[in-house]
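User: My advisor, Dr. K., asked me to get a structural model of this assembly before our group meeting. I'm new to this, so sorry if the format is off. These are the inputs:
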Amino acid sequence: MNHQVGWRLRIEHVTRVRYAGPVRSSFNEARMTPLTLPSQTTLESQVTVGSGDIPVWSYDDYWGTHVSVFEVPQAHEDLLIRATSTVATGSCPRLPPARQRPDWAAIRDRAERGRLLEMTLPTALTALDPQVCRAVVAEVAGRGPDEAAAAIAALVRERITYRPGATGAQTSASQAWDNGQGVCQDLAQVTVGLLRAAGLPARYVSGYLHPRASPKPGRTVIGPGHAWAEYWAGSWTPLDPTTGSPVGERHVVVARGRDYGDVPPLKGTYDGPPPRHMDVTVELTRLA
Amino acid sequence: MSADLASRGVCQRVRALERFLSDVYGPGRCFDDGVLPGRLACASGKFRREAAGFAPPGGVRVHTAAIDLIHDEAGALRVLADHVRMPGRVSPLLDRQQGMPGEYPSRLLAALRAAAPPGVAHPFVVVLTPGVHSPAYPEHTRLARLMGVDLVTGGDLACHRNRAYVRSRAGRRPVDVIYRRVDDDWLDPLHFRPDSLLGCPGLLNAARAGNVTIANAVGNGVADDPLTYPYVPDLIRYYLSEEPLLENAAGPGAAARLARPARLRAFAVNDGREVWVLPAGQAGE
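Assistant: The format is fine. Below is the predicted structure of the whole assembly, which you can bring to the meeting.
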């Protein structure tokens, strides 16, 4: 086969939560296990909690995400979650020629029926002001679906400056648009909102990104969690508005949903004071 | 119209709604086949994706239902509304026979026992109430007493390793079936409203693991939604290959022209083998 053999990536995603006092009855779900897809294969993965003595149960949710469930009943002041995995990733598949892709009308028709529909409806986190949508849709008018999607991603990249700390997990696409600043989550949600406004089914993708385009195998680097978007035009097609680069070996998909709310890496409930500090590190190592 | 036809009609409706729910939370065939628009599920806040992908014991989601009926000009009963989330207002059924316990509590208890996770010989059944501040609290107490089961609040429940327990001074006891009178939104702060104190964190995952049955099931609201109602006759044809025995009342405007505008409520209990119906004529007139 003439196919480009992809990378093998080792990911270590460590989350440390420190609370302002003792907390009890903590129930949690982690979405940190990479998916196995045509474009990537999860070779091994594990989620451990604390020193590893806390049982972790798992299920696949409505979106197909692998969910790790655990609880910490006794009083504790910090929580450590370590998600490790090894994933084989592939290069970005080339887009099929435009004549093999459905046109706008065909996409709209397909989205009306079946489950693509839920990826066309706005959500609280992805909805944008109708005026903003109209202006963007007018700007990409006259292009084919793939061209329009690429133009939307470029436009979002231009509008929103990448600035860590400028926004939070609950920041909506509309707030990020008005701010003009945000992180990958914001760029992804704005892109999803605009793709939907333009008539393309679109979903939010949560995962990891290796920060370098051609890393030396064996060297470990710190890369943050990442988020990007996918739109449907005959097939689901990824788009990374934050880096502007193709989605390929560097990207590892963990979960896909309507917006961040469907795929949070960690969510939970407990009795006690709020977290004082939450520290997340993602270490990526290209193995081969 | 005979009481028998009405009973069979209500039973038919409940069976169709049951099939609809298992489809919506499973493959979603009805949407692919165009029986009703996909928008009804995916744009509805009552569609609980958290409850998708697992089947409750016996496949039963509608353990108890209430169907509101009304007479048309010709004297035929028509359906005004379906209730398959937490059908209430059962008090008339509880106090009708003076001194004699009515059939409803025993039928309901039998259905709840039948809904227990497989392998449980003597299921521990409880009624979960939001508490004394709920207007329906007196009804919850009476129902629990007539069934001879414990009445609990969210604070009495605790989950541990995907199992639900009732806490008491004597210790904790594993619970098998929860007849909940707490709405989906408040049932499990891990999945729904995080500020809820009326439910218990971990409950939905305990049900997903098959260790406890929540009755009625989470997410039934998509079946008794007013937007789903117009399609129920079609759902009966689609899932059961039967003609509806009870037609829908044409709509709110038509009600004024109806000869006897009294609204009747028929109650149904599904134990997984048969749907028992207490006909409306007996309950509401």
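One thing worth pointing out at the meeting: Residues 56 and 213 of chain B are 7 Å apart (CA to CA).

User: Perfect, thanks a lot.
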